[in-house]
Amino acid sequence: MSIFGTVRVKNGQYRIKGDFHHITPNTPIRNEEDGWKLMGITNPRSMTYMHSYGGEAPFFESMSQGKILGTRCDDPDCEFKGTTYIPFRIHCPDCLSKNTIVDFTDICKKTAKVHTFMVCERSGAFNTLDKPIKFINVEFEGIDTILMSYLSIGEPEMGLRVVPIFRTVNPSYTITDLSWVTEGVPAEDLPEGFTYG
Amino acid sequence: MIKFSERQLKTPKLMRPVYLVTAGQSKFDRAMPDKRTEELCVDALTMAARLIDKSPAELKSYIHSCYYGHFADHFGDQLLGEAVIHDRLGLDPLGNIGVKTGGATGGSTLWEAVKAVASGYSDCTLAMGWERMDEVPTDEGNHLISCAADKDWETPLGHIYTGYYAVMAQKYWQVFGKQEESFRRTLAEISVKHHGYARFNPYAQAPMDITVDDVLNSPVVAYPLRALDCCLMSVGAACAIICDEPTAMELTKNTKNKPLRIWVSAGSHTLRPACRRDMEIPLLPNESPDQYADMAEKFPGGDRYPGFTGFLGARMAAYYGYHMAGIVDPTEDLDVIELHDAFTISDVQSYEDVGIRPYGYGRDYVESGDCYHTNPHTGEPGKLPSNLSGGLIGCMHAVGATGIMQTLEIASHIWNRWAEIHGDPKIWDEFGREKPADWTDLQVKDAKRALAISHAGVGSHVTATILMDPDHLLNEDA
Lengths: 197, 478
Hints:
Largest sheet of chain B: 9 strands, mixed
Mean pLDDT of chain A: 95
Structural class of chain B: alpha/beta
Shape of chain A: globular
Oligomer: heterodimer
CATH superfamily of chain A: Nucleic acid-binding proteins
Helix content of chain A: under 10%
Mean pLDDT of chain B: 96
Largest interface: A-B, 47 and 50 residues
Low-confidence stretches of chain B: none
Number of helices of chain A: 2
Radius of gyration of chain B: 21 Å
Number of strands of chain B: 11
Order of helices and strands of chain B: EHHEHHEHEHHHHEEEHEHHHEHHHHHHEE
Strand content of chain A: 25-35%
Helix content of chain B: 25-40%
Order of helices and strands of chain A: EEEEEEHEEEHEEEEEE
Number of helices of chain B: 19
CATH architecture of chain A: Beta Barrel
Strand content of chain B: 5-15%
Strand order of the largest sheet of chain A: 10-11-12-14-13-15
Radius of gyration of chain A: 22 Å
Distance between the termini of chain A: 38 Å
Number of strands of chain A: 15
Shape of chain B: globular
């Protein structure tokens, strides 16, 4: 009996268990307007990848704990020392020294505003978000970059104050574990699995 | 980087003059179940040979190295597709390499082919690009395209690239467009123009005789963008032959193609718009340092650069390209252009990035009528006609081929062969497409200089391809 593929790391190596792919037969593609002549075949494929978050892993873990981690360049020799990053950047893009990890949760909770947004009626395959998707790009006071995310409750507009919510119950450990709502939404109204952290 | 050193801003220099000799393309369509990709590439190379009165075998005998643009291996489910095409074109054992830079793949492929000739490595190169976007359903195609965004920070958010791109459109719409109904209609006019020009192009996938209201009534994709504001998903191939001067002269002797000087430049910017940091606007030759001092007053919210409204990669491609070829004012110095109209609004953004209009005033290029073959307000020739092929909205966006298709299009004007290439009834018949009764010759009269912009996604890669009649150079030392 097959099980979903699972992976753990031991001694610096991936240890895998379960099915990572499923075999489905090819089927012919035929032309119904030309005597059902053969035109091609389908190539079904289902695969599971193993992906490393590397130095960004602390960020993807922290969302499930109700935190937003960013980074800052503290290299005294860097011309742009003090630049702060959300999204998390492992290395300073100017001097390439390793950035310092900083907990920016409070700044995010107190200063987040919608920089721009887009309500998208469509999605691609494998989407897990409810449609329409309210994409928002969130700016924070004192942070030099802008975070792309999505608004779960409220109608987006530029300058709108928003607060973060976190999928702390059954987290996916993807960027979808972080979302936003307008100020004042009761905790019990948050989407299933989400809390204020 | 948000500051650039003088070394980084050096004007690029080709070591010897480089020429576009000929080019070709296949039919473009949403799906082509009756053809393998290699057949489309053969079609393109055969056309390129035909335009200089050569057989494919004769033309192939000049090619020394090959540059293949194919963006999405996973669309075609064939890694190293370049090797397949190279073999099927019968070009083994020549050296070849694959190029992929998202939507700019076609332009980047030309960039490599030109540099190979400029350096002296080769005297004749093939730049061939293609894309096969019909082997998965549209929603899976959207997922595959979204994989060109940051896979951890963006792709899981809806698996839809439009969403990552359109936040920038929304910012432009509100800050520079001021959400004006008149601007929304201007955007729609671009779609009408490009679908309309596609009617006169037998290679084009989406010819339409539509109105502004048709665009405004098409389904919303991501407000304010509607279905008819968006580019196509396509199948097709295009190629170009790039040579040094002696080879170019030999190949074109007694043919209708005059070898055209070619320069390609490139710029880039972060894959994630989220990571854009504020910087000073790099100025083009037709701009002044004080020109943008009051942006925040004129356009509240428009004080960040590039913010979410400009494309630094496009600005830098133009910066390098204009300095390299001697262009000061693109509207005055160029005769015809093809821009990367992935969306109507990004078309407007491009006008500003490449200096056709200052930042904030892109819409005027459309509203003035300058962008038309024939200015609808005056009945006179448009000052700088754009996207007479139909562009990505009306003709095609077979990603790896797009920048090369654009280059063939602008070259056809300088060669004075536009009517022949687009009007031959045999081509319409071969493609099973009906030549419209009101087919119009869009040849730009006396075209001598032209530009094509090839652009990836949110501006991660952008190239500027510049063509000039060698007897009408702006800088003899270029």
